[in-house]
Every structure is written in C-alpha cells, then in structure tokens.
Write a structure and sequence with these properties.
Low-confidence stretches of chain A: none
Helix content of chain A: over 70%
Number of helices of chain B: 10
Distance between the termini of chain A: 40 Å
Largest sheet of chain B: 5 strands, mixed
Strand content of chain B: 5-15%
Number of helices of chain A: 4
Radius of gyration of chain A: 17 Å
Number of strands of chain B: 7
Oligomer: heterodimer
Structural class of chain A: mainly alpha
Radius of gyration of chain B: 20 Å
Strand content of chain A: under 5%
Order of helices and strands of chain B: EEHEEHEEEHHHHHHHH
Order of helices and strands of chain A: HHHH
Chain lengths: 109, 242
C-alpha cells in the first residue's frame, strides 16, 4: 500500500470510528423510542445536520472500504495492477453514489 | 535406556511439484543440534543432500531452515527442544525464497530488497569536515541500537506472511535496516530512503502480525522498526519534519 493510500485509510478510519458509533446510537435510539418510518423521515427532512453527518459518513466509507478491499484482494487472490485499481475506483464511486443518494433522499423526502 | 532414534523427514529437490520428502533415521546424541542431524545424514546416509552452514555457533546466519514448520537457525536449535516425545523432525528450506536444492535457498531476492529499501549508509556528496557526535543516550541512537544486531539470516523474511502474499514486499529485515539508518544522524540519504520504504511494497503493507519479532533468533523487533518507519512516513506525508 502506498503512503498516500495508507494515510487516506487511517484518516477515514478515525472519522468512521466516531461516525459508526453515532450511527449505531441513532439506530438504537430510534428503535427504543418506537419511531415509525414517517416519524424518522419527519426528523431527517430538511435537516442540514443530518445531511452533513451522513454525507461525511458516506464519503469516508467510500474512501476507506475500497482501499482495504484492494489490499485484501491483492494479498489473497493475487489480483493486482490497473484492472484492480479501476475496479476499486468503480467500487468507490458506487458506494459514493448509493450512499449520497440515500442520504439525500432522507433529507429531501 | 537409550533413546529411540530420530525420525527425520527432509524436503528434497528444487521445489515445485517435483519436490518430495525423504525419510531418515538418526541416533539421538547428547546436546545434539538440528544442524548436527543434517550434517550426520549428509555424511553418513546421503551425500547428495544439499544444505548451507558456516560457523555452527550462531554468528553467520547461513544455516536457517524450516524446522517442524518454523524458521530457525539449525545450529542453535537443540533437537530436544523441537523433536517432541515422538522424536520427529521435519526439515524444509526457508519459505518465501526460491529453492536451489533441498535445504539451500537462493538468498538473492532477500539481499536485493535490502538494496531496494536503501539499507546502506549514504555519506552524501560532501561528508562533514569533522566527526559528528552521536550521544549514546540520545533517542535516535538508542532506537538504532535496538536493530543493529541483525546478521541477515532470513528467518524473519521466511516467517513473514505478508512476503508470502506479496512477493514484492520489502520484508522485516530490509525495513529494520532502513529504520536503523533512519536514526543515523550522519546519513545523508534520508529522503530517498523514506521514499523507498513508503512505496506500494513498503512499510505500510505490514499487518503487524509480529511473526518476525516472535521468531528473530537475535530477539530483534522488526515490527517496532516498521512501526517507526510508518510514523516517519506519515510525518513526511503531512509535511512535518523529524
């Protein structure tokens, strides 16, 4: 792994450690409070803080996960080189697109 | 009662599919080392057996082999420590290196990585006029001290899973050497060295499994040396010096 990828993965790991904890706390809170889907949407709609948090979460995950997966695939399957890099860039874009779309849908619903 | 003879299984051939295991029986002797066993087999039973050794006293680092699954110096490994109650020895060449024949491996890739990691002193274009003072108690000197006893036996390299997964990975020995030089205030090649050990096959690939540190016969700790390089590389990436 190159130094830049290493730094990107470690930096996003720091963000994700907090983001995942907050995400889990939110889920547990929503579950315990017995919120319906409608009640949840009412809280997320036009909520800038919600969009900023999940936007950041998605960006961090879209950077972090493909770097780790690239390493796992290179070491365990021997897949290396540009084709792997291209596939992982595609995976990153897919995560980014799907995640941001979902976060925006909750914001704009 | 005399102990039962040792059952020794030795991997033969040049590796790959034609490799096979040959069985030998060797009498047990007092204070017998694994190297004694290999030498006895070669002298008394099969003179075509190839292996490598030189000093026999743990100074040269040339007799390393895989003994019952673990890389070890055979000259400093007593049979009693490893053969168990059954008295079995399974001897194979070091992992992660091409086999020349039987128990002798080609160390060339190992030493090429020392060069690739710039594991050599770089005096610079214009050496200083006077001696540089290196205080023995300074943190950098002490960090270097912890890693300078390496004798290039290749045990850590053979133990490293990451080398097994990624044959380009520089490996614990080369990175440990780079770390000792990174702590040498006289060295003028720090930027180039840090760039060399921060590439795709460099220190960031280490998974911190610590097999190198566990098995180093000199009790060195390459894992910590590699962690030191990771810190230096991170500081460099963030644009901070030192």
């Amino acid at each position: 792994m190159s130094g830049a990828l290493f730094l990107a993965q470690r930096a996003t790991a720091v963000l994700l450690a907090w983001a995942v904890a907050a995400h889990l706390a939110l889920i547990i809170h929503a579950e315990r409070a017995g919120l319906t889907a409608g009640a949840i949407l009412a809280r997320t709609q036009h909520n800038g803080a919600f969009l900023a948090f999940y936007g950041l979460f998605v960006v961090a995950a879209a950077i972090h996960a493909p770097i780790g997966l690239r390493n796992v695939l290179a070491e365990w399957t021997g897949w290396r080189g540009r084709s792997l890099d291209a596939a992982m860039a595609g995976f990153a874009l897919a995560l980014l697109w799907l995640g941001l779309r979902a976060a925006y849908a909750m914001f704009a619903a | 009662m005399e102990a039962a003879p040792l059952d020794v299984s030795i991997r033969r051939g040049t590796g790959g599919r034609e490799a096979r295991y040959d069985a030998f029986r060797v009498p047990r002797r007092e204070n017998q080392t694994v190297l004694d066993v290999v030498t006895e087999i070669q002298r008394e039973q099969d003179e075509t057996l190839s292996y490598r050794f030189a000093c026999r006293v743990g100074m040269c680092g040339s007799c390393a082999m895989t003994v019952n699954g673990r890389p070890r110096w055979t000259c400093r490994t007593r049979v009693a420590e490893v053969a168990g109650r059954q008295g079995r020895l399974r001897l194979e060449p070091l992992r992660n290196l091409p086999v020349i024949k039987d128990l002798a491996v080609d160390m060339a890739p190992f030493f090429e990585k020392w060069r690739a990691a710039k594991g050599f002193f770089e005096p610079g274009e214009a050496p200083p006029d006077d001696f540089l003072a290196v205080a023995p108690a300074s943190p950098s000197r002490q960090a270097a001290d912890e890693g300078i006893e390496c004798i290039n036996c290749g045990v850590c390299y053979a133990a490293c899973e990451v080398v097994g997964w990624n044959p380009d990975y520089l490996g614990p020995a080369a990175l440990n050497r780079a770390w000792t030089l990174a702590n040498d205030v006289r060295d003028q090649g720090q930027e180039a060295r840090l760039a060399a050990v921060s590439g795709a096959a460099g220190c960031q690939s280490c998974h911190t499994h610590m097999a190198c540190t566990e098995l180093c016969p000199k009790a060195l700790q390459p894992t910590y040396a590699i962690a030191g390089l990771k810190r230096l590389a991170l500081r460099r990436a963030l644009g901070r010096k030192g």
